[in-house]
Amino acid sequence: MTDRLSQLIQAVEEADSSKLLLEAVQNLADARLEGAIPTLIEALSYNNPGAAVASVDGLIALGDPAVPALLHLLDMHNYTARSWAIRALAGIGDPRGLVTLLGVATADFALSVRRAAVKGLGMMKWHWFPDEVREIAQEEALEALLFVAQQDEEWVVRYAAVVGLESLGMMIADSYPEWLGQIQTQMNILSCNDETLAVRGRVWLAQAKLEDKLQQIYTDKLNNVIQASNYQESTSPLSPNDWQVIMNKLYEMKRQERTEVSK
Q1: CATH code where residue 73 lies
Q2: Residue 53: inside a domain, yes or no?
Q3: Measured CA distances, 170 to 194, 196, 237 (Å)
Q4: pLDDT digit string, tens, across residues 125-135
C-alpha cells in the first residue's frame, strides 16, 4: 500500500503537462488513501482547475480525516486554494467546518463558493452534534439559508439555498415546527416572487417534499396513539378509522393555517 501511494504521489510531482497532472491527481484521488491528503491539499493550489476538482472529489471521498488539513488551508492567503477547500468542506459536512460555511455562505464574493457553502449547510451531519449544540447550530444555519434565499443576487445560489432549506426542514419538522413555519413562509414568497423559473420550480418540489414529511409525522403520531391505546385498561370506543379521520382533519387545519400565514 505504501509503495502504491509513493508511486501515485511521485506521478503527481513529476507531471510535466496539464493533462498528465490531471490524470495523476485523478488517480491519486481515486485510490482513497489517507496518506494522499497532503498531496491532494497541495493540488488545490495548482493553476489547474481540473486537478483541483479531482482533488476536491478525492478529499470528499476520504471524508473527516481530511478536515484538519482543509481547515489549516483556510488560514492561508491563497484565495483560489481557500475556495476549493471550502468546496471540499461543504461536501464532507463535518461539523468542524460549520462556522466557516456560515460566514462564506452570506459574504463571499464568488458565487460558486457561496453556492458550495450553502449546499454544505444543507448536507451538515447534524446527527453528530450534541443536543445542546445542535439547536444553536441549526438556528444559525436556518438564518443563513433564509438570508441567502431572499437576498442573494445569483439564482444558482438561491437555488442551492432552497435545497438547503428543504434538507434542514426535513430534519427539524418534528422538533421545531416554528422554524419549519419560517421555511414554508420563505418558500411561499419565493414560489411567487423569484424571477427565475428554475428557482420557483425547485421551491415547488421542496414544498411537496415537506408536505409529505409532515403527513408522515402526523401518521406516525397517530399510529403511536393507537398503539398506546391498546395498553390502556379502559378501551376507547373509537376505531382506528375514527382516529384517522380526526388526524386528517387536524392535518388539514394545520395546512390551512400555514396557507393563511403565508398570505
Answers
A1: 1.25.10
A2: yes
A3: 22, 24, 35
A4: 998 888 888 99
